[in-house]
Request: fold
Amino acid sequence: QLRAGRSTTVGLAVLDAGNPFFTDVARGAEDAAAERGLAVLLGNSDERKQREDAYLALFEEQRVSGVLLSPTSETLASAERLRERGIPVVLVDRTAPGSDFSAVAVDDVRGGDIAARHLLDQGRSRIAFVGGRPDVLRQVDDRLAGARGAVDDARGATLEHVETDQLTVLAGRDAGAAIVARKPADRPDAIFAANDLLAVGIMQALVMMGSLRIPDDIALIGYDDIAFAQSTVVPLTSIRQPAQLIGSRALDLLAALIEDPNRVPETIEFEPELIVRASTGE
Ligand code: RIB
Reply:
């Protein structure tokens, strides 16, 4: 049952409503909400803090019973403020160890490790991790950390971080163009993109602008395994996240918190899965 004065809606603030990963998260949350007679208000922070804050304020105005949040920054100040005002919050798509927030995500360190080891197993040794900036999105930091660990274990392999402002197709296309512009000897022989949207943009740049062959010249792996990953011009190898399950389990945790605000915080971490396709060679 709901708390006095609370509506039968919950808020869901995602980082990028244009990313099919979050569409699938929202679908999972909505299906679980419908089973409980709850509706979901979707907000797109567009990876911008001020938009995230605006949506959280709107959710509060609408007297939502709880909020699912994929945070735009490492700090969780906005989530703390909501909770201080009596609105339960569950983090989606990243964990917050040490905080007392419940959270649902995949183990992104493991995901980064699996991705890098797959490239190393293909005999690649000059890996570029493309996407994000340090200390912004925890899930991206964790993927990079996992990849660094795998590369450190492999003798003679190197890893560089090609940073981008966003995790979009356009940002991927720009990063890919910069790699194409390098002297051949300075190019990586494998790219690990922080998500599939970046990988799509990178693939376009390598193939259209650089006439480079994937994977022969540069192997490419993404992250999320969105539906488009299998239909890119060179089908994309990716690390699958169970997006709909993440959404529905996050809603389940939120419903439990609405029921009992003093419930012990719980973190659910799913295992990432390597989906091999032509872009890394097999
Ligand atoms: O938008 C940020 C990225 O982190 C998404 O593509 C998805 O991978 C999420 O985990």
Remarks:
- Helices lie at 20-35, 49-61, 77-84, 108-121, 138-153, 169-181, 196-209, 243-259.
- The pocket of alpha-D-ribofuranose is lined by residues 15-16, 19, 21, 93, 137, 139, 167, 195, 223-224 (CB under 6 Å).
- The first strand starts at residue 9 and ends at 14.
